[in-house]
Write a structure and sequence with these properties.
By secondary structure, the protein is α+β, with helices and mostly antiparallel strands. It has a four-stranded mixed β-sheet, sandwiched between helices. The chain has a three-stranded antiparallel β-sheet with strand order 1-2-3, with no helix packed on it.
Amino acid sequence: MTNGPVSRWQRLTEKVVAATRIFELTSVLFRHPVRKVEGDFVVIKAPDWVNVVALTQDRQMVLVKQFRFGIDDISLEIPGGIMELGEDPLRTALRELEEETGYRGTGARLLGVVHPNPAIQSNRCHLVFVENVVKSSQLNWDQHEELEVLTAPVDRVYEWAAAGKITHSLVLDALLLFMPVWKELQVESRRSV
């Protein structure tokens, strides 16, 4: 063992162990380039997705509550969803926001991109900010969705996150990356008064 630079392991072979409608579970054989040790690792290949920080004109954040099968409980989150292959993250964000909440907005911009769990997942989550959203259309959920749509002041959302009422890690990532934008918006708001 050394305390030097980390090596990039060599990917040797890969086989699909299970395929589902949401992801493929793969077995991937890797070899260390220096030590030559090999290991069989499980990798979940899932599509990229987006999460959307959406603010109404009066600075309320759009949130959704929904049942999450993984935790067998209700989760408080921001809207989001799976990207189609080759789809632009900003376009996906606007589509998912409208389908899940009925809100439309302007000025979509990328806050950042994160790897949900790089130890076992290959996909990315694109975190998008959409301003000036207004309720404008009917909801368009898929057969497995049922959401409660609500809005709350941004500062209250941060209080909920700090108190453990928001536990979805990608939502917390989005709130972290949105924080400097929120501070900037508050400064601009004070200047215009």
